[in-house]
Amino acid sequence: MNARPRIKDIARQLGVSPATVSRALSGTGLVAEPTLSRVREAARALNYRPNVPARNLRTQRTMAVLMVVRDIGNPFYLEVVKGVETAARDAGYSVLMGNTENEPEREASYFDMLRDGQADGMILMTGQLPARLANAPDLPRLPVVVALEIIEGSGLPHVQIDNAAAARMAVEHLIALGHSRIAHIAGPLPEVMAQRRLEGFHTAMHAARLPIPAEYEQRGDYLLRTGQALCRTLFSLPQPPTAIFAANDEMAFGAINELRRMGLRVPQDVSVVGFDDLFLSEAFYPPLTTVSQPRMEIGRQAMRLLLDRIAGEAAPAGPVEMETVLCLRATTAPPPQ
Question: CATH number, domain at 278?
């Protein structure tokens, strides 16, 4: 039976020091390319697996991180999880999932796990902190990275997108098609991410000098059934919109389903734009025009940033911002004449 490959074996094969190999595999130090890629490729080729119990005893680390989300059943998180898990695996870490179901005390319990040493760090994907944590003096020092969501004033590092600019881009597309009666189904206001997307909607409409009737702004919660219900509300108005910008794809799906139920065609009668570019958005009929954010890369970047925090490195001066694009598909067209 072949001996289990060791860090020394990888170092000898590549002609580098064992310390360099250790830093590259653990993500606990700066190793430049192409050495980093060479080490990881050699580790895979040799089928190297870390001696986790020995390393944990030596470093007093669990080699596990928490990924805490609102709703583990939401397909939105799948690509982010892939990105986090890929970067974690490369560094020898495992990922534990935490599901808050929007309950503050459940979220607080995951912070307790982190403080108690049951995990080395946390990637947080909820839009707000429980009240008992919001002003905790040690919060900015905890190895926590916020991904995609925005928690202002927390002092935590963020990996995010420019939600306002992305929303503005989506609404400007509808305006360019000739729509002037555009409604917005928002996320759970006053959460910051939902607020920023609402701001982008306002910016585009005001720049085009288009009116926004109060009834054209509906507050949702990112769920499909809410998109259905708020679409019914919009189309009970004396003058309904000719286009809807939904704050996420799931509510956009709900709106389109309700429009069909009412006998309206998308996009011939009503245009719809979503936000997120879920894997179902391209397979949906008609394929959904939506804002695409690089969720897998956001997950990878969040995990890399978390590894830096675990290693004691300082947080970036500001949020790490990722690019978005508008995927033009089949749910938008000029308004009916």
Answer: 3.40.50.2300
